[in-house]
Each structure stands twice: as structure tokens, then as C-alpha cells.
Specification:
Elements lengths: L21 H12 L3 H8 L3 H8 L7 H11 L3 H6 L16
Length: 98
């Protein structure tokens, strides 16, 4: 595992970053990036209230928005979708072999 990768070191049911809903993990992403709900919504082209509804567990994001979050913020899809504690939150560039 590379230095700086954020992975869990406890069981998924005990990890505050992985346990729970996808909305909770979206909030974790936002907090890790140090951005507000408003800033995240702007970058994704959605309303602030939409982010609030996802984070609060009132609605589930559509697959197109999950893909946009992963792409825009370089988030590992398995971590975001499943809360997989063996995966890092952020994707890392793979070394190019020419």
C-alpha cells in the first residue's frame, strides 16, 4: 500500500468512513476534500439541497452521479459504492510504462 492511501484498519461495521450509507461516504469525501456542500454541488452541476439529501440518507444518488463523483474527485468506485475498507478512498495515478 502506498504512503498516504486512506484505507481502514478496523472491521467495516466499526469504521466511521465505511459503515453506513453511500450518503455518509459522500459526506466523508467532501470532508476529506475540505469543501462545502455548495462547492461540491457546483462542481457536480447539481443543487445544494441534492447533496444534503444524499448525505442525510433521504435519497440515493443515481449511477450517473456516482460516476461523476468518482471521476471529478478521483474517488475509488468500490470504496464509494460498497464502503470496501480494503480499498483507498482516492484513486491514484498508475505509473505509465512505455
Amino acid at each position: 500500500m502506498s504512503a498516504g492511501a486512506q484505507t481502514c484498519h478496523v472491521s467495516p461495521s466499526m469504521c466511521p468512513h465505511c459503515a453506513g450509507t453511500i450518503g455518509r461516504r459522500i459526506k466523508t469525501v467532501r470532508a476529506a476534500l475540505g469543501i462545502s456542500q455548495h462547492e461540491m454541488a457546483l462542481q457536480l452541476g447539481i443543487a445544494d439541497k441534492t447533496i444534503k439529501n444524499y448525505e442525510g440518507g433521504h435519497r440515493d444518488p443515481p449511477s450517473s452521479l456516482i460516476a461523476a463523483i468518482c471521476e471529478q474527485f478521483r474517488i475509488d468506485a468500490a470504496w464509494l459504492l460498497l464502503g470496501d475498507p480494503s480499498r483507498p478512498m482516492f484513486k491514484h495515478e498508475q505509473a505509465r510504462v512505455d
